[in-house]
From TrEMBL:
One of its GO terms (biological process) is iron ion transmembrane transport. Coiled coil: none annotated. One of its GO terms (cellular component) is plasma membrane. It is found in: Membrane. GO terms for molecular function: cadmium ion transmembrane transporter activity; manganese ion transmembrane transporter activity; symporter activity. This is Divalent metal cation transporter. Pfam families: Nramp (PF01566). It is a multi-pass membrane protein. InterPro entries: NRAMP_fam (IPR001046). Keywords: Membrane, Symport, Transmembrane, Transmembrane helix, Transport. The chain crosses the membrane at residues 7-28, 34-53, 74-95, 110-130, 142-160, 180-204, 225-247, 272-302, 314-331, 337-360, 372-391.
Length: 398
């Protein structure tokens, strides 16, 4: 893995169909009233990914392995291992189903054979790419397609002449109620992806071997902040185009007309281009999600994280199979994608809290552990996500 790409791989990993779908739904249904949730998500992602990267540089291990090594009690170690396996396994299975469903929606616009059939085909493609370990060049091509799609969204927004005053007014009136909380959690879950913490630490641990640690930390911090901010800008532009096309309009957004937000530039070809973007984003994330799960589970269980090892392959194979199974049973596509993002939002506090605790182990991490400012930022992130998740649970019963 090239030394200077881990931050951009993380950004590309969270710009999946969940990001495009959730941002579109947020803009269409709530305008700019939920931009606060996106800004919080970008800030939180930068904070948490910085911790994961520093952990990888300092220990030379992935997140799960390093965290497990720092737990002394055998009982707590077993509990921690079970939690990682269950949380990342369940979270990535849900996320994988959303990735495959999003990509399937895209392909079904070109050839209507049903999203279930396409999900199965895509699952096989992801499986073959990971099996041969040649996914990197495919991922690079697909990432370029995603960024091309982002460019078209931006051009569309400019051509549509957005009402900047209305956007700013809505931004200054943030919304959080029972109707919006699922979308808020989805925006958080699609940006602060728990599995990216494991993926980033593992990539950094492998790519910085033999490099000066101070320089590696500085480079990773700068690169991650730039890449994640770029991903956040793409999400904001998608939200803005959906707002212009659907918010307070007679038409409502669904899977069949989501691409209409691009019509000011692309006309009748808008739906096809949007479908291509969903396919690109979906397949990219469908590769990285099981890969990250394999790093996390193998690290927690003390198994080899070599991509050719049987255990490593068994984990990502299981994640892909679960994702395909969920995507092919007939769930409606948009709720399935939104559910996957909301699930990540609810799982995030567990992983973030463990990460925050581990990053304060100065015996192992030394100067690469958390400073007081990192702890304040991390504590704010964890408290906010826990509070939003609690609000969601309470709202179900009121």
């Amino acid at each position: 893995m090239a030394k200077d790409k881990s931050g951009y791989i993380i950004a590309a990993a969270f710009i999946g169909p969940g990001t495009v779908t959730t941002a579109s739904l947020a803009g269409a249904n709530f305008g700019f009233h939920l931009v606060w949730a996106l800004l919080f998500s970008i800030f939180a992602t930068i904070v948490l990914q910085d911790m994961a990267a520093r952990l990888g540089v300092a220990t030379g291990k992935g997140l799960a392995g390093a965290m497990k090594d720092m737990v002394r009690s055998p009982v707590l170690k077993a509990l921690f291992t079970a939690l990682i396996v269950a949380a990342i396994g369940i979270g990535n299975a849900a996320y994988e189903s959303g990735n495959l469903t999003g990509a399937a929606i895209g392909l079904d616009a070109f050839l209507n054979i049903g999203t279930g059939s396409w999900a199965l085909i895509l699952g096989v493609i992801a499986l073959l790419l990971l099996w041969t370990s040649s996914y990197q060049w495919i991922e690079t091509v697909l990432v370029y397609l995603v960024f091309i799609m982002a460019g078209v969204f931006l051009l569309t927004l400019i051509v549509a002449k957005p009402d900047i005053a209305a956007m700013f007014e809505q931004f200054l009136k943030p919304s959080l109620n029972a109707d919006a909380i699922t979308t808020v959690l989805a925006l958080i879950g699609t940006t602060i992806v728990p599995y990216n913490l494991f993926l980033h630490a593992s990539l950094v641990a492998k790519s910085t071997e033999g490099e000066d640690k101070d320089k590696a930390v500085k480079r990773c911090r700068s690169q991650s902040a730039q890449a994640i901010s770029m991903g956040g800008l793409i999400t904001l532009v998608v939200m803005a185009t959906a707002m212009m096309a659907f918010f307070n309009q007679a038409a409502t957004m669904d899977a069949s007309n989501m691409g209409e937000q691009l019509q000011p530039v692309l006309g009748d070809k808008a739906q096809w281009f949007f479908a291509l973007g969903l396919f690109s984003a979906g397949l990219t994330s469908a590769i990285t999600a099981p890969l990250a799960a394999a790093y996390a589970v193998c690290g927690a269980l003390g198994l080899s994280d070599n991509m050719h090892s049987k255990a490593f392959r068994a984990v990502w194979f299981s994640i892909i199979c679960c994702g395909v199974a969920v995507a092919t049973v007939g769930f409606k596509p948009l709720p399935a994608i939104l559910f996957a993002q909301a699930t990540n939002g609810l799982l995030l506090p567990i992983i973030a809290l463990f990460l925050l605790v581990v990053m304060n182990n100065k015996t192992t991490l030394g100067k690469y552990g958390n400073s007081i400012y990192s702890n304040i930022a991390g504590g704010f992130v964890v408290a906010t996500v826990v509070g939003l998740g609690g609000y969601k649970v309470v709202s179900l019963f009121l």
